[in-house]
Design brief:
By secondary structure, the protein is α+β, with helices and mostly antiparallel strands. It is built from 15 helices and 48 strands.
């Protein structure tokens, strides 16, 4: 009975709000390229709140592109997205408001400080509840290039989103979100009447229900009308690439393509998805829906979108089906109710992912993650070939859990890491809903979803969804919202002691993270499944349950792995077994199989001048999912040295949630390689590192405190004198980083002590990218020996143009070379000079400044200057200057000396031997270039 009363109340509220909407009329005239639009717009602004309004705010997200200091630009800088900062004003776009009036009286339109995409008008007279005013705007739009946010103009088409100035949402307070490339303009229903004047060669498509067109000589004039519309997007193309499919549910207009599928197959797939969504969500409130490649690219099916077109491991139609399903579902969900899409976007993400899981279960129940690749010879040996397509959601989410980078899924989108916002959290909530459905019943969840979209007021919120869930079940569901969706805590259950009694078996379930939620316990006889038991949520460290004695001898918590855990390798307990899980060797890296202790074996190679190409293998335990405890053993054979070389090490990480201390890492490592022809070094090190990171994971600030002891043993030769064959150095280093595209700052303080010396050094590095695209790089270094009993050798001295690297920290390809190309390798350390001087070391103190600035694009001018003091001479001043080719900052660079203490170096003989280079060949280091915007 309470459900019927609730539905009646919801219907009444819906009718009450049905006519309370803003209205927009606009005439839009575009130039031949349609990159510039002239807009004459009328807004009938209705105060549908219970408060009087003195100021009216508006979203003008097209103007977010106008400044390199806007919230959008700052987000790009945080994520190292260079193309926005280095583009022209015309490429970025802007809004130029020509005039504005209210009820015929001219008014001034202002912009919120530091939010150029939020406009406001101060009213002469407060607008009372249920009153409206007529606002007239005239403005010019420069549409941005599509390369920034996947929306805008390109050579072949134009997609218009957020192009009109629209009223901001007021819900007890103003929701004033800036554009941050999150596709999350707050959803609200508005009555639209648009007249769009387009050049004759452009074809316009939209989901407006009422469309008429007036054909003229060189242009076409479209009239687009629809009430209660959430999405006034327009798409213009030079060719008619949109196709229409009429279903009994909704008319679909789409340019999502697959050239290998016949039109009738696409129609069948479209019809199937439409009925699926209608059954799961309810009747779509509009007659038409538009599904575009632009919308798909804003939220693609990651994995499928990286596959080249000629690689098709899935059955015909599957990739098209999943692409269309994802886009269809997101647009379908967005067509129902007003939503604070930055705060409550997780609701749409959760339901979208859950519906995709259900769709694949229904129509592709046997689809593997790797498709037909899983049957290939060799591939089928991998655990990845056993995984189903729906297993991808949990795997991707767990990559963030294992790095201590998970965030509550209900955080506002702009506070989430990019990887969490686009992948991990939508997947986490989707599989969470799937888990909840297992707990309360699939029918109860589906009824709650349907009720949330098709009944109630004009707004959709998390609280409404929770209320609807509570109506459908007697089970406790607070854990889902408080501990699963809204908690920073990870999930990690473990099976503890198992005791066999006379009539029953007692099983201890341990909650390692004290994050209460229900979990299923599976009972097995050997590896044959017997039954499962729900263990209700508990907040204590452990809970003991009893089951009647059965032949069960294997107990697995979270046995179906539906709940994403920090560590699934501790979920199994076997009675009478020494090892809960057998050891398994895997050739090449694989997805982790929690039923085994896995050891991975892969081929590996390294290179230096003396060992030549060193080939070997690496044995390690870290799969594609990181582990807290990791080890690697990497023996190799040097083809140049004809000797055994390589490295080995282990480390262990301790993570801390929502604390300044983010991680503690400690470990041991060792290596053996050649440092000269037929001469080898052995290096052993133990280390302890404290890593500090702000609770706001989007903040790029980092602090590191590292303590280590480095022991080096080197071969001695009667031919080549080895200055310091054996030594031990204790090192303490503190460093701070704040790395962004537009401003980059690092500093470090380093202390070393050994038997023969003690030294202290500090460096500061600053890089600033100005709005005119000029860049300046500054670095200051200073170092001082506290004592030095090794003045007869420069082995431990500060390097002026090339550090000796006695700790073997740097990847020198020819560390002992004094001539030839390998001696020209440059590493920015110590004094950092690029010219090669007669005095190359300082054994008392040194101070230097390194500077470079933009000449054009990636061509820089550099200059270095400093003083150094040797025990055998007075302090000396040195300098150099030249041209720097900044191909990839800090990874691939060339330095061409021009003038220094050596004179005009360009005029010297063998100039090619004076050129310096930075070249990074390490794959892990290069991968950091691509990862930094995601994490």
């Amino acid at each position: 009975m309470k459900i019927q009363i609730y539905i009646i109340c919801c219907l009444f509220i819906s009718l009450t709000y049905a006519q309370q909407r803003h209205k927009i009329e606009a005439e839009i005239y575009g130039n031949d390229s349609f990159k510039q639009l002239d807009v004459s717009q009328k807004i009938s602004y209705l105060n549908n709140s219970k408060q009087k309004l003195d100021t009216l705010f508006f979203y003008d997200w097209n103007n977010a592109f106008s400044q390199k200091t806007s919230p959008l630009a700052k987000r790009f800088a945080e994520e190292y997205t260079r193309k926005f900062h280095f583009s022209s004003n015309e490429e970025r776009g802007f809004t130029d408001i020509k005039s504005a009036s209210i009820n015929g009286i001219p008014v001034e339109v202002s912009r919120v400080n530091q939010q150029p995409d939020i406009a406001y008008i101060v009213l002469n007279k407060a607008l009372l509840p249920q009153q409206n005013v007529k606002i007239q705007l005239s403005y010019k739009l420069q549409i941005p290039n599509k390369k920034f946010t996947k929306v805008g103009w390109s050579d072949s088409n134009i997609s218009l989103k957020y192009y009109l100035i629209t009223p901001a949402i007021f819900n007890k307070k103003w929701i004033l979100y800036s554009h941050k490339d999150l596709n999350d303009l707050p959803l609200q229903a508005i009555d639209y009447n648009l007249k769009v004047d387009v050049p004759k060669h452009l074809i316009l498509n939209s989901s407006f229900e009422n469309v008429s067109v007036e054909f003229m000589a060189n242009r076409n004039r479209f009239t687009l009308i629809e009430a209660n519309k959430f999405n006034p997007d327009l798409f213009l193309t030079t060719t008619d690439e949109f196709k229409t499919v009429k279903t009994d549910v909704v008319e679909i207009i789409s340019n999502i393509g697959d050239n290998n599928l016949r039109p009738e197959i696409k129609a069948i797939i479209s019809d199937r998805i439409a009925f699926f969504l209608q059954d799961k969500i309810g009747n779509f409130p509009h007659d038409k829906i538009i599904l575009t490649e632009t919308d798909y690219n804003l939220s693609p099916v990651y994995g499928l979108n990286q596959l080249p077109a000629f690689i098709r491991p899935f059955p015909d139609g599957f990739q098209y089906d999943i692409k269309l399903l994802k886009t269809f579902t997101r647009q379908y969900l967005r067509g129902f109710k007003q939503l604070n899409s930055r705060q409550d976007s997780w609701l749409l993400d959760a339901i979208c992912t859950k519906l995709m899981i259900d769709y694949v279960k229904t129509y592709y129940p046997n689809m593997k993650l790797l498709g037909s690749f899983s049957e290939f010879f060799g591939v089928r040996w991998f655990h990845a070939s056993d995984l189903m397509f729906n297993d991808r959601y949990q795997f991707i989410h767990e990559t963030m859990i294992r790095q201590n980078l998970s965030q509550p899924a209900n955080l506002p989108l702009d506070e989430q890491l990019k990887f969490n916002q686009q992948l991990s959290n939508p997947y986490k909530i989707g599989i969470g809903l799937d888990y909840l459905s297992d707990y309360i019943g699939a029918t109860s969840l589906q009824k709650a979803i349907k009720l949330s979209f098709t009944h109630g007021g004009h707004q959709f919120s998390a609280q409404e969804f929770k209320n609807n869930l509570s109506l459908q079940t007697e089970q406790e569901i607070d854990w889902f919202f408080d501990n699963y969706i809204g908690s920073y805590k990870d999930i990690d259950f473990k099976v503890g002691n198992v005791k066999l009694g006379a009539d029953s078996t007692s099983i201890e379930v341990i909650n390692l993270t004290r994050n209460p939620m229900p979990v299923k316990l599976g009972l097995y006889h050997n590896d044959a499944f017997l039954t499962s038991i729900w263990v209700e949520a508990f907040s204590e460290e452990s809970k003991t349950i009893s089951v009647k004695n059965t032949k069960a001898n294997k107990f697995v918590i979270n046995y179906d792995y539906k709940l994403p855990e920090f560590n699934q390798r501790n979920n199994t307990k076997r009675k009478g077994k020494l090892l809960n899980k057998p050891i398994q060797f895997r050739f090449l890296e694989d997805i982790e199989d929690p039923d085994y202790n896995q050891v991975f074996v892969i081929p590996e190679f390294t290179y230096n001048l003396y060992d030549g190409l060193a080939l070997g293998t690496k044995l390690y335990n870290t799969s594609l999912l990181p582990k807290n405890f990791s080890y690697k053993i990497s023996p190799k054979y040097g083809l140049g040295s004809n000797a055994l070389v390589g490295s080995a090490g282990f480390d262990h990480k301790l993570f801390f949630k929502q604390q300044p201390l983010f991680q503690i890492t400690y470990g041991l490592n060792g290596s053996r390689f050649s440092y000269n022809n037929n001469l080898f070094y052995n290096r052993y090190s133990g280390f302890l590192q404290f890593s500090y990171r702000p609770a706001n994971l989007r903040d790029n600030r980092r602090h590191y405190l590292t303590l280590r002891s480095v022991n080096v043993d080197q071969d001695e030769s009667p031919i080549i004198e080895t200055e310091e064959p054996n030594y031990n150095v204790f090192n303490i280093n503190y460093s701070f980083q704040n790395k962004n595209l537009d401003h980059f700052f690092t500093t470090s303080v380093d202390y070393e002590i050994a038997k023969k010396f003690s030294k202290l050094s500090a460096s500061v590095r600053y890089r600033k990218l100005f709005n005119n695209n000029r860049q300046i790089n500054l670095r200051f270094f200073t170092g001082l020996f506290l004592f030095n009993d090794n003045n007869d050798s420069d082995y431990f001295s500060f390097g002026i143009d090339r550090p000796t690297d006695y700790l073997f920290d740097y990847n020198y390809y020819g560390r002992s070379e004094d001539s030839g190309v390998f001696s020209q390798q440059f590493i920015m350390a110590d004094a950092g000079f690029k010219s090669i001087f007669q005095d190359r070391f300082a054994n008392q103190w040194i101070s230097s400044v390194n500077m470079s600035t933009t000449i054009w694009n990636w061509i820089f001018a550099y200059g270095d200057a400093g003083f150094f003091k040797d025990s055998a001479s007075s302090a000396q001043f040195i300098y150099d200057s030249g041209i720097r080719l900044n191909l990839v900052e800090d990874y691939f660079e060339l330095y061409f000396p021009v003038y220094s203490n050596n004179g005009w170096e360009l005029a010297e003989d063998a100039y090619d031997q004076r050129i310096r280079f930075i070249a990074t060949l390490d794959f892990k280091t290069l991968l950091g270039l691509f990862k930094r915007k995601w994490y």
